[in-house]
Write the structure tokens for this entry.
Amino acid sequence: MKAILLAAHAVRYTTGEHTLVDDVSLELYAGEVLILVGPNGAGKTTLLRLLSGELPPTAGEVTLGGVELRHLSALQQARQRAVLRQQSAIAFPFTTFEVALMGRYPHLNGQRESSQDHALANAALEQTELRPFAERIVPSLSGGEQTRVNLARVLAQATPILLLDEPTAALDLRHQHLTMQHARRIADAGGAVLAVVHDLNLAASYADRIGLLHRGRLVLLDTPANVLTAAQLSAVYNVPVVVQPHPTLPIPLVLVLPRGSPSEAQESAAYAA
Amino acid sequence: MSRVFRTFATPMRVGGRMRPRRAFLLLIGMFGVVVLAALGIGSVLIAPQVVVAILLQRVGLELGIAVPPQEANIIWNIRLPRVVLAILVGSGLALAGALLQGIFRNPLAAPDLIGVSSGAALGAVAVIVLGFAPLGLFTLPVVAFLGGVAATVIVYRLAQREGRASITAMLLVGIAFNVLAGAATGVLTYLADDPQLRSVVFWTMGGLGGALWTSVAGVLPFVLLAWLTAPLLGRALNLFTLGETEAHHLGVPIERVKQGAIVVAALATGAGVAFAGPIGFIGLVVPHLIRLTLGPDHRTLLPAAAIGGAIMLVLADLIARTIATPAEVPVGLITAFAGGPFFLYLILRTRQLYSLS
């Protein structure tokens, strides 16, 4: 039995009369990459914010290493888990290296950054292919590059648990896969990664388990093959979807049919029947 | 065409940043020069070496330079308290500005935003117009100080929800409070008679004319507190740059940092305004200027702003009392006249960086 690093127990989050996350329970095990998918407004980001301690749940509880989040200080949490948020703009002209080095803050104990901290920040820049940008001013970088700078900061934090909200949304193909490979590597080294990803095929390629969220509820949490089925996806996303075996890998391949195509008519007829 | 844009763009690399050691040496050098100039220049000109001799004589060091007692008297009783007050007030204002820009994550934040200045102005004008003075001459600075600090407490409280202070809410509450306090100050000004009106107008423009050693003693503890506390906040403020939530995720106790920065900024600004009136632009321009030359790291920005603010106010006050001798121009006019165009220049130069284009 693998260790549970992070868990949500029947968490609910309500603002006004809207329930954004409804009775979600999940466990993040050591060694796994868990990817949350679902349509816009399904509650993925809210769930991630509950898991990261940014929002207190209206009901239920979140535990980190077995301890309820509200009993842990920000620093204690930061030593165990790093968070990459969806939108994050830097206010002042820090350089790429300086931002990566900020990831070392929870480990400094008020001391100056050591040569080891510098080495870890540099390694994180290496991993995100940002070494040539080390002395560049972050606000002068492109959106995708800025996402990578924040990813470098998260990697430099060197925590066993990573919570990533759409880490690949602004990235090109190469860096989408590099990012997911870092997630895979951290999980293989005994850590755990929970990420929100929109690209279902990217999710299928790297996830051990996929959680499908719909209207605030976790409707499915299982292996990619069991979650990414045409019936499930068509119903939740409300678009005609076909799922085929991947030509070279043992994973499903999700394709969306364009509106009005003959195969769409066939599919929807089959779906209706 | 692209060349035109490039001249307007910010430097992409950090080549333009000055090394901290060099910058601090330069700042300390400038500080020394400005202080010597301010002590030496006036209706009686005193040579720099004589100024140094007078200062060292007090601590028991004889330089072998003849020191006329009258000049020693001018330095000790007139010019030095004024220069020291300028150092403390300028330093406190610039430090407060740097702290607030850090927690607001906005280079345009200034001590005025959290209501300190308008609260202090309301207190000061109330004392002038209503004419109550249970503490004698010290009534005005004490009431102004309390007004400034009370204003910040009110703004902070109103912006709080569920134990968290929203920075945006603080900004909006601060604006609303400034309008209200301004209106109340306006009513009092309207009620004032002619001599009171004159006092109100002069106080509002700021000045260090009334500087005494007792005013120095009044400001010192609060600016000292800012000097001692600010270094503890530097690293946390760097992480605030990434966003409040990001700072929290990196382990920063964000509510404590915000409270600390706001309390320190309010006390330093309140004490400064109480004894020197509202002096604009130092809290805004100095941190900005330091950031442009030294980079945004608060661990160097905060101490550099503290020195830079002192330099700027000592210099502005020197200009204020010498530009139209024997008359004295309110120092607030000097900082505004110099600060305004300079700030405009900075904004135009860095507009891309703050996406104002």
